[in-house]
């Protein structure tokens, strides 16, 4: 990632997520995550590393507050996890940052089977 360090992404994604969840979406983690995906889409389109890192951090922020996930978000994070863990993705990260992202991918992968999948993103 040319413009951000992984720790910076962790901080600003988490802060933005929490801000919009409490201020704009009355505590809805699903809607806040959808907003994050929308806001960060231009950055995520810069490359596969950005897409994986931002997706993992958005979903990680969401899972800290909820055990539900919208089906579209589930599909995005499943794809990001697969790419992160496959070994076939060339990350534009330092070795330490890559290890951090792989650990996060494993953590979220372990949580996915315990989540309720929601088919209406505005469902509460």
Plain-language structure description:
Helix content is 69%, strand content 5%. With 124 residues, it is mainly α. Strands 1-2 form a two-stranded parallel sheet.
Short description, anyone?
Helices cover 69% and strands 5% of the residues.
SSE blueprint:
Layout: H1 6-23, H2 29-44, H3 48-65, E1 68-70, H4 71-85, H5 95-112, E2 116-118
Parallel strand pairs: 1-2
Helix pairs in contact: 1-2, 1-3, 2-3, 3-4, 3-5, 4-5
When the domains are counted, the total is 1
Low-confidence stretches: none
Indicate the percent of residues in helices: 55-70%
The overall pLDDT average reads 90
What is the CA–CA distance across the termini? 35 Å
Q: Tags for this entry?
A:
mainly alpha, globular, 124 residues, two-stranded parallel sheet
């Amino acid at each position: 990632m040319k413009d951000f360090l992984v720790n910076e992404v962790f901080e600003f994604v988490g802060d933005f997520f929490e801000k919009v969840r409490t201020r704009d979406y009355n505590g809805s983690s699903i809607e806040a995550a959808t907003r994050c995906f929308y806001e960060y889409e231009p950055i995520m389109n810069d490359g596969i590393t950005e897409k994986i890192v931002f997706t993992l951090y958005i979903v990680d922020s969401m899972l800290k507050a909820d055990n539900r996930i919208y089906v579209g978000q589930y599909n995005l994070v499943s794809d990001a996890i697969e790419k992160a863990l496959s070994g076939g993705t060339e990350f534009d990260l330092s070795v330490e940052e890559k290890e951090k992202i792989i650990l996060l991918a494993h953590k979220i992968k372990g949580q996915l089977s315990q989540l309720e999948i929601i088919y209406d993103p505005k469902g509460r």
